[in-house]
Amino acid sequence: MMSTASRIALQSIVFKEVARFIRIWPQTLLPPAITTTLYFMIFGNFVGSRIGSLGEYSYLEYIFPGLVMMSVITNSYANVVSSFFSAKFQRSIEEILVAPVSNGVLLSGYLLGGMARGLLTALIVSTLALMFVDIEVKHPLLTVLLVVLASAMFALGGFINAVYARKFDDTSIVPTFVLTPLTYLGGVFYSISWLPEIWQHISLANPILYLVNGFRYSFLGESDVNVGLAILILLAGVILLTLFALRLLQRGTGLRS
After folding, report:
1. pTM for the whole thing?
2. Where is the ABC transmembrane type-2 domain (predicted)?
3. Do the domain assignments include residue 257?
């Protein structure tokens, strides 16, 4: 059971993290809302009207889960990488490191802060999306499970990126050159069945494809991949990244000069 001191430390870190992204909401919560609205206007209405329906669903309904998942991925990651690196850069992280706060509590605090921003963004994006499309969730528990696991996995990814980053430019390398391409190629806007066979096989190596399709299945009941495999990938990702992040903290990687 967690001690009183650890519980207070965890609550303090989580409160600081949530207060930080709420305080700068024009930079953290407003951009995904505007971006998603544009996506729904351009791809949903203008492009979607030319594509037509996909089976029993409109194109707007088809891309809805992918756009929500995309906002969860980018915001969970961005929150932790920017916050933890800023703490390193300003040397305020040293106050936590010298305090009697365990590595698990430190990591959990930043992780929960990143998850909070990812989940709040998902709620905002979903609310805005309902202005454009009326969609029914077929598997609500699966929806919650996938969005929580995805926010946790990418918040951990952001933490690891921040640990290794030496300057602010390093915090944007992974989002720009890894996350964004994999997300756009992860089936947010299309089914991999539309691709040539060789590209279908290549797409299966993209882990974000499983997240997007698992999330789409929870809404529509349709997926290009095995949903059980998507859950296993998320669980494995969360466990492995947690162990790796704790190992980095234990060794003091990027924290001790």
Report:
1. 0.91
2. 23-252
3. no
CA dihedral of 110, 186, 225, 206, whole degrees rounded to 10? -70
Beta bridge partners of residue 87, listed in sequence order: none
- What range does the domain containing 240 cover? 4-251
Residue 76 has pLDDT above 90, yes or no: yes
Q: Which long-range contacts (CB under 8 A, 24 or more apart) does 83-88 make?
A: 83/17, 83/20, 83/21, 83/110, 83/113, 83/114, 83/162, 84/110, 84/158, 84/159, 84/162, 84/163, 85/162, 85/165, 85/168, 85/170, 85/171, 88/162, 88/165, 88/254, 88/255
What would the mean pLDDT of 160-186 be, rounded to a whole number? Answer: 90
Q: What is the distance in angstroms between the CA of the first residue and the CA of the last residue of the chain?
A: 33
Instruction: Return the number of other C-beta atoms located less than 10 Å from residue 219's C-beta.
Output: 22
- Answer yes or no: is pLDDT of 155 > 90: yes
Count the domains in the chain. 1
pLDDT in tens, 36-61: 888 888 876 777 777 777 778 888 88
Which CA distances in Å does 73 have to 15, 52, 81?
A: 21, 28, 12
